[in-house]
Amino acid sequence: MTYRFRDLLALEPLNADELTFLLDQSGPFQAIQRNPLKKLATLRGKTVALAFFETSTRTRISFGTAASRLGADTMNLQAESSSVKKGESLLDTVQTLNAMKPDCLVMRHASSGAADFVARHLDIPVINAGDGTHEHPSQGLLDALTIRDRLGKIDNLNVTILGDLQHSRVARSNIHLLGKFGCRFTLCGPAMWVPRELEKIGAPGVSIRRVFRLDEALEDADVVLMLRVQTERMHEPSISSEDYVLGYQLNAERLRRAKPNALVLHPGPMNRGIEITPEVADGPQSCVLEQVTNGIAVRMALLFLLISGAQEEGRDPATTNASAGAEETHAPRNRRSTDKKDLSHASD
Amino acid sequence: MRIVEKAQLMSASEIDRTLRRLAHQIVEKSGGTKHLALIGIRRRGVPLAQRIAQAMRGIDGVDVPVGTLDITLYRDDLSKVASHAVLQSSDIPFGVDGMDLVLVDDVLYTGRTIRAGMNGLFDLGRPQRVSLCVLIDRGHREMPIEAQFVGRTVQTSDTEIIEVRLREIDDEERVVLVDRQEP
Q: What is the DSSP code (8-state) at residue A261?
């Protein structure tokens, strides 16, 4: 099995074999997290550019830690303190970064498709660390790895996703990944956060239903995937924290409706007392801290795979540029399936 | 380029006898099996280490722990790492601090694999001693590394390849010398 792309922009175009390969590659890096000495020299002399045009704490630290544990250096760009504030265009900013010769770009942006756009203009691998409401592929992978470790499989599970589905790239990446393994999805939350279109976002044949009563949505669930309630959005024509707690807070009593050992995942940061009670967040079914640890392993695997892959092709970043002709001889970009029909749903 | 088999270096029974001899030598030189552990380097060092441990059971009646080490992440040639090959986890289910470790591999050639293996081991702790056991030493070293326990030393040229085929991984059990010939 191989990974045929130069970038990781989305999970949607990947088939089940490729996704399994990425999860398997993360295994050795999970073991390294348990070593007394966690730092490798594998990517010594390589540089990873972390460009976060949207604020992020844990994902940025996780990618930065993954890079440093592989021996790579990082360069950091954060929107608040950067030229973005001075009116520079996205493309100018990343081309400036690229001129400093990083070996990989990890990028987060508030606009869906931003990483895809940037990848077309750069010759180095690009990893999407979250683009608008589109995808957050490394989060999808670390969630699947966590589920696989606990349950021993990711096939044919009942997955309940709870919260603000409409704005969630985490939910989309999870549906695109777990949907390829026959998982069935129940989406639950206040109606304005769970629009009807979401029933159609999976590949053909993926079962997605909307349920607006939490007790019913939890029935028979193997996995409960919590999404952050974005309190900053609560001001919109929306729902008060009090009403959300009443209707949708995951507490121990409600969780008993799910299967006895159902897992609870949350990408963080958690709003304790709003979407989840401390009893559940700290309980035996919670995987929250494993998700964080696994995130580093997944990101180490991605950086290793993409940077060593680029090296293997014999590309010299100093002398090549991303001209259309040059691109054909290299691994294809991991575009969204709307751009390249031939890459979509190869497993279906 | 054609791959031509030039000679058989060891038969199945010769491999078996050699591994038994190596087991004896390791036990003798280590002064017992108390702190001894074997570390097989993936892939073919792993079954070899297990077989040596098996032979030691017959000598000292003791189970010598066996670990496995994947050295991919410790290699010095990132550009040649088959990045799309499946990485394997190292599996060393015992502490290495203060241990008398014997790295086991099939063929000793440039010494770079062993250099990588030692780096991997020292990320796990501080062994008391590390020695090296190989089935075949074919020369052409590029590192100051030698094996303490050698099954057989073979003179080879640069174009020749030694293939150790083991029943656990391959369909047969023998050691052959093959040559790459330009057409």
A: T
Q: A289-312: per-residue pLDDT in tens? A: 999 999 999 999 999 999 988 876
Q: Compute, in degrees rounded to 10, the torsion defined by CA atoms A95, A91, A311, A293.
A: 110
Look at residue A32 in the predicted model and tell me its pLDDT: 92
Q: What is the ipTM of this complex?
A: 0.82
Q: CA-nearest residue of chain A to B88?
A: A28
Give the residues across from A213 on adjacent strands. none
Residue owning tokens 């054609």: B2
Domains of chain B, CATH where assigned: 13-75+96-156 (3.40.50.2020)
Instruction: Using an 8 Å CB-CB cutoff, list chain B residues near A30.
Output: 89
Total Cβ atoms within 10 A of residue A222:
20
Nearest-CB residue to A3 (from B72, B84, B89): B84
Write down all domains in chain A, each with its CATH number in brackets: 16-136+291-335 (3.40.50.1370), 137-288 (3.40.50.1370)
- For residue B153, CA distances in Å to B9, B10, B149, B160 come to 10, 12, 11, 14
User: Closest residue of B to A30, CA-based?
Assistant: B89
**Could you write out the DSSP letters of every residue in A277-291?**
-HHHHTSTTB-HHHH
Q: What is the pLDDT of residues A162-177, one digit of tens each?
A: 999 998 999 999 999 9
- Please report how many Cα atoms fall inside a 13 Å half-sphere around the Cα of residue A63, on the Cβ side: 29
Cβ contact (<8 Å) for B90 and A31? yes
Chain A contact set for B74 (CB, 8 A): 40-42
Catalytic residue at A85? no
